[in-house]
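It is worth pausing here to work through a concrete case rather than discussing structure prediction in the abstract. The textbook approach is simple: state the sequence, then state the predicted structure, then interpret. We follow exactly that order.
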Amino acid sequence: MQYKTLWKIICILILSVFAIPLICFGTELLSHQNSSPDFPSLMESIQFEKDIEFCGIKIPIEDQDVKERLEKEMLLALWDRAQVILWIKRAARYFPHVEKILKQHGLPLDLKYVPLIESALRPHAGSSKDAMGYWQFLKSTGRKYGLRIDSQVDERRNIFKSTQAAGEYLKALEKQFGSYLLALSAYNMGEYGLNREIEAQKNNDFFSLYLPLETQRYAFKIICVKLILENQESYGFFLKKSDLYPVFSFDIIQFKLDYQLPIVVIAKAADIPFKTIKDYNPELRGYYLEKGDFAILIPKGKAKGFKKNFSSQYKNWEKIYKTKFHIVKNGESLSEIAEKYQISFLYLLKLNNLSVKSMIHPGDRLLIE
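Step two, the predicted structure:
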């Protein structure tokens, strides 16, 4: 019994040593959260005292249903403070370019918050439905609005071209439905689906339409992003200018290729890593540029001397790789060329990014090794 009693006393002492500081720390942290003027409580964050507008539309927060929907999205957004910080940082990098394009289309600048919800401004963001890029275009919609999407290039990942396409699409949707909130709903669920719901419910008021749950939340998420980014300090985000990512700046190099060329040759000519080319041009897929006209972005200041360097790099590359090409002659077929160099037909197609339906012509240059 004496040993048991002694052991109990030791355990109590050990627990006291660790528990008291934890209790004090927890109390201090709770007190800080409740009283710190720099970090408003979640309840304070959903006290919407001023009028809220989005794309010129007043949000009727006096409606209990609307208020609850807005509160929900605000609480969920603020719960993930790390994500909000990334929104703010990336917005500093891309918003100047996005705003310029929206202005060109005569669109409300509030629409710049859409890609934050769609992709968190990440070029390679994808969805289970095969949407891709900053604005999360499906292939069919992206191509409809002029984006190139194939095995070599996916312009959904290009901030400039995808924003141009999104601007045209949203403008068309607003014209069709008469409201940017309905346009955004159509952007999320498809215009045909939204039309069906409007006809079935005999109602075209965004706030009282019953839509798929994801679509019901969609516009409210965007509105909350706007509120947070336009009132950062009110929500406890105190980022200095030095904390933000710098505005995306670049030089453009333009050239024409008559045949496939490794991207690494371009990178060496610009004196930058291969990774930098891919980071500045996320729409490029794979390791080669196909023949055609190209406008490639590189870091600001790297265009100086590019043409001279490129000419030198190209000559070096040609010396190494010229034996790895076959110039197509009149009457030759892909299967004959594959047999000539003792490589498989499918491997020849893969090397040259061709399909079984691809046509070749005399003078074409094929990579054979």
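Step three, interpretation. Residues 22-36 have pLDDT under 50 and may be disordered. Residues 328-369 form a domain with the Membrane-bound Lytic Murein Transglycosylase D; Chain A fold (CATH 3.10.350.10).
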